[in-house]
Amino acid sequence: MERIYLDHGATTPLDPRVLEAMIPFLKEDFGNPSSLHFFGREVKKQLEEAREKVAGILGAEPEEIIFTSGGTEADNLALGGVVRALREKGKHIITTAVEHHAVLDTCTALKKEGFDITILPVDCYGMVEPQHVKEAIREDTLLVSVIYGNNEVGTVQPLEEIGQITREKGVLLHTDAVQTVGNLPLEVEKLQVDLLALSAHKFYGPKGAGILYCRQGIEIDRMLYGGGQERGRRAGTENVPGIIGMARAMEIAVEEKEENTRRMEKLRDKLIEGLLSMEDVYLNGHPTRRLAGNVNASFEYIEGEALLLSLDYKGIAASSGSACSSGSMEPSHVLLAMGIPEQTAHGSVRFTLGRHTTEEEIDYVLEVVPEAVQKLRDMSSIYQGKGEGK
């Protein structure tokens, strides 16, 4: 059976070139970078070169790069670490209703510590209005957190405009940019962000490695204790193979960004056009300001989970939203925040394309999906009775 992977928003396969860069650090270059002897010094040198490579891509300084275990830790450290360090100056945090749970759940935890959280609404495309950010900022506002490219619906937020506002107001801006490497510009000064989170396995790097860019001069409380690694901001022996692989994966993603983005946009638009030609199917997220590989669609009168199982039987892997909450039977908080009815939200599926997705695969998906949807609708009493009473 043909197997087609359209869940790159959840994770991506490790690029062979990345594995090649990692292998020496899984074998002969095994030293602890904190050790003073030859083995440690050699690895420490390579670790710092990886830091410089990442910093160069972001337009940052090497000392502004904190290596983490992934995007979730980076988000947690950015929000929790910064506001706890600055709590004497204020208690107010602003975020949006469409953030990843790594941000929203951190805000929930901080609320229990006495911080005041403002969650901004979004429009029907999942876009936050910069003016709403401006209006929400108070004298005691410490931090604004706005996702760059939404992991569920692909909407790209007006981050530069929001960054201009936060800079003028003297408020810190954090962004979860996990979905954007190889998709969108990442220069931190252009974006005017103070904190930015990334995760290697979203851009063909290894799992277990992430990045938090933290602008120089920002106070941040550590979350992990036990050592002085990462300039005292993140204790624990560094995941050297993961970091080396992550830096290489980031380098490749940026080098090949233009070609891959152009190709994925073409395939994405073909998939959108084909899905929207079906009856009672709607695109979720902004029609043009969206990530190159993201297609999130709602199929009326069916359950998204049932459609996913039908597609899986046909060899197609997709998802119902964020991989981090896929075990939940609750409708997507992102879709509900966009004003999508709960029943429609339950019928949503996310297809996320990657650099190896082919046009033949998209053709196959467009052949299978209508058949699967119709079979499920034929079993739906809601669909059978949709014309009644008119």
What does this structure look like?
The chain has 390 residues and is α/β, with parallel strands linked by helices. The chain has 14 helices and twelve strands. It has two domains: 4-11 and 257-381, Alpha-Beta Complex (Aspartate Aminotransferase, domain 1), CATH 3.90.1150; 16-255, Type I PLP-dependent aspartate aminotransferase-like (Major domain) (Aspartate Aminotransferase, domain 2, 3-Layer(aba) Sandwich), CATH 3.40.640. The chain has helices at residues 16-22, 38-58, 71-85, 101-112, 130-136, 159-169, 188-191, 240-255, 257-276, 304-313, 333-337, 342-346, 359-378, 381-384, and strands at residues 4-5, 65-68, 92-96, 116-120, 141-145, 172-176, 195-199, 210-214, 281-284, 294-299, 316-317, 348-352. Strands 2-8-7-6-5-3-4 form a seven-stranded mixed beta sheet, sandwiched between helices. The longest helix is centred in the first third of the chain and has 21 residues, at 38-58. It is globular and about 70 Å long. The termini are far apart.
Keyword list:
390 residues; alpha/beta; Aspartate Aminotransferase, domain 1; Aspartate Aminotransferase, domain 2; 2 domains; 7-stranded mixed β-sheet; 3-stranded antiparallel β-sheet; 12 strands; globular
**CATH 2nd-level architecture of the largest domain:** 3-Layer(aba) Sandwich
**What is the total domain count?**
2
- Spatial order of the strands in the main sheet? 2-8-7-6-5-3-4
Count the strands? 12
Order of helices and strands: EHHEHEHEHEHEHEEHHEEHEHHEHH
- Report how far the terminal alpha carbons are from each other: 44 Å
| Structural class estimated from helices and strands | alpha/beta
The first-level CATH class of the largest domain is given as: Alpha Beta
Provide the residue-averaged pLDDT. Answer: 95
- Assign a percent range to the helix content: 40-55%
- By CATH, the superfamily of the largest domain comes out as Type I PLP-dependent aspartate aminotransferase-like (Major domain)
Strand content: 5-15%
Based on CA atoms alone, the radius of gyration comes out at 22 Å
The geometry reads as globular
Q: Within the CATH hierarchy, at the fold level, what is the topology of the largest domain?
A: Aspartate Aminotransferase, domain 2
pLDDT < 50 stretches: none
